[in-house]
Amino acid sequence: MLAGTGCSGASPAASDPPQPSGVAVCHPAQLRAIFRGFQAAGGSLAGAVVVANAGTAPCSLDGSPRSLSLLDKEGNAVSVKEHAVDFPANRGSVKLKPGAPLPAFGSPLAAGSAWLSLAWSNWCSDTTPKVQSLLLVLPRGGSIAVPLDTGIPNWAEGPPTPTCSNSHSASTLTFGRFQPPTASS
After folding, report:
1. CA–CA gap between residue 77 and residue 66 (Å, rounded)
2. In the chain, is it the N or the C terminus that has fewer CB atoms within a 10 Å radius of its CB?
3. Which pLDDT tens digit goes with each residue over 53-74?
4. Torsion angle of C-alpha atoms 161, 87, 24, 148, degrees rounded to 10
5. The whole model's pTM is what?
6. How far apart are CA 97 and CA 93, in angstroms?
7. Which residues are CB-contacts of 135 (< 8 A; sequence separation ≥ 6)?
8. In whole angstroms, what is the distance from residue 50 CA to residue 113 CA?
9. What is the spatial distance between Cα 78 and Cα 134, in angstroms, rounded to a whole number?
């Protein structure tokens, strides 16, 4: 399984104060992530990103990413309108424990990791990009590369793009807040 890491050109915010939890904000160099792929959800596609702390000290994430880009097999951004939503609403920061593993396909998320949901809708282009990775910009700045989980079996892969529901509207990528794993994840 491949896992994304902090991008070398990323610059974290200078001397971030601790979050209300008393734990420092996560910086790109501390993080690894994996994109669990898309599944059909009506005419849209739904997916998830899992983030783990590869550093040596606990850190926290709060809110939604500043930006989340879909990247094709050549590493080019797929043209979509990004829309961050406060979902689940009114959640606090998520504490990431050092050493929490990224999950294998079909496995639950480890305690001490975080995840966020995403949905891609309305693709009306003649081209059909194959999303292979994501670029996630953290809430406080800096970015991490998020590769597609290579452990996804062929039978579990969703369609490559959502359906065209309105040719006069942009394709949209909606994503939520970082959240901790639940007992059922």
Report:
1. 16
2. N
3. 999 999 999 999 999 999 999 9
4. -20
5. 0.86
6. 13
7. 7, 67, 68, 69, 71, 77, 143, 144, 145, 146
8. 7
9. 10
Identify residue 167 by its one-letter amino acid code. Answer: S
Question: One-letter amino acid identity for 26?
Answer: C
In DSSP terms, which residues pair with 47 in a beta bridge?
A: 38, 118
Which tokens go with 11? 């610059």
What is the token pair recorded at 20? Answer: 């209300």
In the chain, what are the domains? 22-175 (2.60.40)
Quote the tokens at residue 57: 């000290």
**Tokens read off for 117:** 């949901």
Q: Are residues 114 and 51 in contact, defined by beta-carbon separation less than 8 angstroms?
A: yes
Q: Report the distance separating Cα 79 and Cα 3, nearest Å.
A: 24
Side chain identity at 19, as an amino acid letter? Answer: Q
* C-beta of residue 82 within 8 angstroms of C-beta of residue 60: no
**Measured on CA atoms in the order 6, 65, 136, 34, is the torsion positive or negative?**
positive
* Structure confidence by residue, pLDDT tens digits, 98-109: 999 999 988 999
- Residue among 36, 93, 41 nearest 64 (CA): 93
